[in-house]
Structures are given as C-alpha cells and as structure tokens.
C-alpha cells in the first residue's frame, strides 16, 4: 500500500444544528507532510476523526489508495488523537507492545518495533515507568510512538506539537519528515503556524467547516500583495508616499515598509529610494503563513 494518497472528498458533518464540516475536500499525497490549520472549533479534529473512521461522515468519502477506507486500511493508519488515549497505568514498553499487537503485529515484531521507537524518541530511561507518571511532554512522545509502532502507511496526528519543549519539537519534526520520506502521507493539525510553514510541503486552512485554502505557502501567498523593507538614511520623511501601486505600511526612522499591489514593479520603488541618496537595505519580506491565515480567517464571510 506504499505510495498512495489519503483523499478527503466532499465530506460534511453536522452535530445537531451545528454544521461542523461543509463539503471538505483535500488530499495528502504520498511522501507529503500536510499541515492542517484553522481556528478553534474550525473542524480539524472532526475531519481527522472521520479520516480515521472513528466518526462517520454525513456525506462524502475518505479514500486511501483510491478505495474507501475499510476496517483493514484503518488498522494501518497511525493516529494521535487530540484527547490522547493511552492507558495511564500501563508501563511504556508494555503499552507499545500491546498496541502494536492490537494492530496485527507478532509478539516479536511488536517488541522490536516498540524498543526501536522508545530509543528513537528518547524514552529509554522511561520504558518501564507507568505512563501516568511521565511528564506531559514525555507522555506525548509515547503517544507518538503509539501512532508509529505498528508501521503505519498513513499518519494522522491531532496537534502533535502542542506542549512540547523545543528539543521534543525537533525530534517530532524529524520523525515526521523521515516517515513522509518513506512515501507515507502525513497530516497533522497545529496552531503553531511558523512551524507548519517551516515543516510542511503543503497546508490546508479550514474556517467554519470549509476549506478556504490548500496549497504550498508560496502558492497561497503569491497572488497577494508583497512587502519590501527599504532603508534610506538620508531620505526626508514621507519620501515614499504617492508612489503608484504602493502603500506605506510603516515608517520607523530610516526604515520604511512598503506594500506593493499585485503587478507593481519593485524597481520603481528602488529608483525612488535611490533618488533620495544611499540605499542601505532593499529586501522583500517573506510572505508568512501567519499573515495569510489572519487574512483568510478574518475576511468577511461570503453571503
Ligand atoms: N461531539 C460534539 N457534539 C457537538 N458539537 C461538536 C462535537 N464535537 C465538535 N463539535 C463542534 O464542531 C465544530 C468543529 O469542532 P472541532 O473539534 O472539529 O474543531 P477543531 O478545529 O479541532 O478545534 P480546536 O482547534 O479547538 O481543537 C465546533 O463548532 C465544535 O463545537
């Protein structure tokens, strides 16, 4: 089942009067790390639970490798639920071995895999401790191990980075990258947009149960306005005002931030800057997922 995509196709879900998902579609391609972002209550957990099959959709379909997700496929998904869900009194190693066997591994294979992930995730000294006695961050590492221990062909992780220290964030990031590099589609939700931008191949933004953007960050930010930072020490204040196709968004001492309307040639701005005297800095601001997110979640809703 390697090299197959996870497809969420036109999925809708209501909880009574609440429309949690309204025709949500996106796909997570083989080998891809896909970041799923949205405000609180936007519908991420609901989508992921439906993808896993622990919740049924009212309409639409989830497919893996082109076929609807079945009980068999489901057992090959690695899932990290938001509410977590380990057995608190079970010891780390026992728990992982048990979960791997539950997913169909032999006792030997389960043991080997559990020990591998324990080592990989820095849990060796904790392997015989009860999960409930671990710190939250370490519990989360165990939770990741639980999602990986049965060698899943798809990974669906609900906020795997929340509450992790920077070192654990690095470990988690590396593991997810490595897993994707083996051809597995990996989707995770997160509110840490800088991290999502750094780590993910593509992102999907959900708002009030509807997908409002799907693509790479450069694709999603390409059509919007871009900003440049200009530093002109000898310019008079207001030197940039009135340049066609531009808006001055900040002026702080010698530094001016100028927003270019789509299609505006930045060389016109450079020429105007040079006309004031020496130019110390002239650089484009990298478009950020945070800016894009703010724009799409605060836009007026379509009628
Ligand atoms: N069991 C439930 N019963 C009723 N409404 C629910 C239930 N679960 C979720 N909802 C509602 O469905 C919508 C989507 O919730 P969901 O948990 O999927 O959002 P989310 O994007 O994961 O949010 P968060 O970032 O806060 O985890 C919300 O309006 C939520 O209140």
Automatic annotation (TrEMBL):
Chain ranges passing through the membrane: none
Swiss-Prot/TrEMBL keywords: ATP-binding, Nucleotide-binding, Transport
Domain (ABC transporter) ranges: 6-233
InterPro entries with a match to the protein in the record: AAA+_ATPase (IPR003593), ABC_transporter-like_ATP-bd (IPR003439), ABC_transporter-like_CS (IPR017871), DrrA1/2-like_C (IPR025302), P-loop_NTPase (IPR027417)
One Pfam family of this chain: ABC_tran
Listed GO MF terms: ATP binding; ATP hydrolysis activity
UniProt family annotation: Belongs to the ABC transporter superfamily.
Name of the protein: ABC transporter ATP-binding protein
